[in-house]
Design goal:
Elements (H helix, E strand, L loop, with lengths): L10 H21 L5 H21 L1 H4 L2 H15 L1 H19 L3 H24 L3 H18 L9 H25 L3 H20 L5 H33 L1 H5 L4 H26 L4 H20 L1
Helix pairs in contact: 1-2, 1-7, 2-4, 2-9, 5-6, 5-10, 8-9, 8-13, 9-10, 10-12
Length: 303
């Protein structure tokens, strides 16, 4: 039925259905892995992120159970991130190549692409227990699937949703304000997290007024891609600075870092342009608008 609430179901039923669908897909992916197991891991981690977006929206209704669930899915996802993070470095270099197609840059890009390829291969070779780890995870997810029936969503649905929407949107507004004042890497990362959750929340509620929320989803997708690409280059810079033996010995290091810097400036400028519009609304006004959409949607079903 998809990652969205349905008009004919209660909030509690919708949360449980969506959670089961995400876990069912993750279990299926682990049972029927793609040719590249690390791509399978990438897909499974996506399900975990969507689950965390779901439970964050109904956080007040879950009560103390929220923290336990959020931490568990966060930590399991992080434990699977090693190879995916290495692959993202190679994808970032490909995007640099597309942005700077001048043949004068190709030698530099090939050199650092090979360095990051060697790094990924080393990580793959060191992860010798991958199959057993994925089998163990599959069993854990089956247990998590069975436990969904015990989830309790307490409180009136409009109040629960309003609290979840406003809290995350408020954090996003605050993160963007701080980012304008002091554009540091950790604040870009915080803005990225908040906009990702907002994207999930809009997807979950997209059916309440599809033409309007679909447009918001498109803009949020673009914002998250920009912030994600910038984050990859942040991580790349940190790796270069921390592993002098591998990277700093290159005669092309300054040229490579200059390309990264220019690309990041362009990503960040475009991200600010989008984020300022996405977060232009006051948190209370945003929440009130979404609550009205939800109420009218529910009333349409009851007529």
């Amino acid at each position: 039925m998809g990652y969205q609430f349905k008009q004919q179901e209660s909030l509690k039923a919708g949360v449980k259905r969506i959670a089961r669908e995400q876990l069912k897909q993750a279990i299926h992916d682990l049972k029927h892995p793609q040719q590249d197991p690390h791509q399978t891991i990438h897909e499974v981690r996506k399900q975990f992120k969507k689950l965390r977006g779901l439970i964050r929206l109904v956080r007040s209704g879950l009560g103390d159970e929220y923290s336990r669930l959020n931490i568990w899915y966060r930590d399991v996802g992080r434990g699977l991130s090693r190879v995916r993070d290495a692959e993202s470095m190679l994808e970032a270099i490909q995007k640099l190549r597309e942005r700077f197609p001048d043949p004068a840059h190709e030698e530099v890009l090939v050199e650092f692409e090979n360095k990051f390829l060697d790094r990924k291969q080393k990580i793959v070779e060191e992860w010798v227990d991958l199959d057993s780890e994925l089998n163990r995870l599959s069993e854990q997810l089956r247990a998590a699937y069975r436990a969904i029936k015990n989830w309790k969503i307490k409180g009136k649905e409009k109040k629960v949703l309003s609290q979840g929407l406003q809290e995350n949107y408020q954090h996003g507004v605050e993160a963007l304000k701080k980012l304008h004042q002091n554009p540091e890497d950790d604040l870009f990362h915080e803005c990225r997290k908040r906009s990702k959750y907002l994207l999930y929340h809009m997807k979950l509620m997209s059916d309440i007024w599809n033409p309007i929320l679909s447009a918001s989803i498109l803009e949020l997708d673009q914002l998250n891609e920009l912030l994600g690409d910038d984050h990859d280059l942040t991580v790349m810079t940190q790796l270069i600075n921390s592993d002098s033996e591998t990277f700093q010995c290159s005669a092309n290091i300054n040229q490579f870092q200059a390309l990264i810097s220019q690309q990041r400036q362009e990503f960040q400028s475009a991200a600010f342009n989008l984020a300022d519009r996405i977060y232009a609304e006051k948190p209370k006004a945003f929440t009130r608008r979404m609550r009205v959409y939800w109420t009218l949607w529910r009333e349409d079903h009851s007529d």
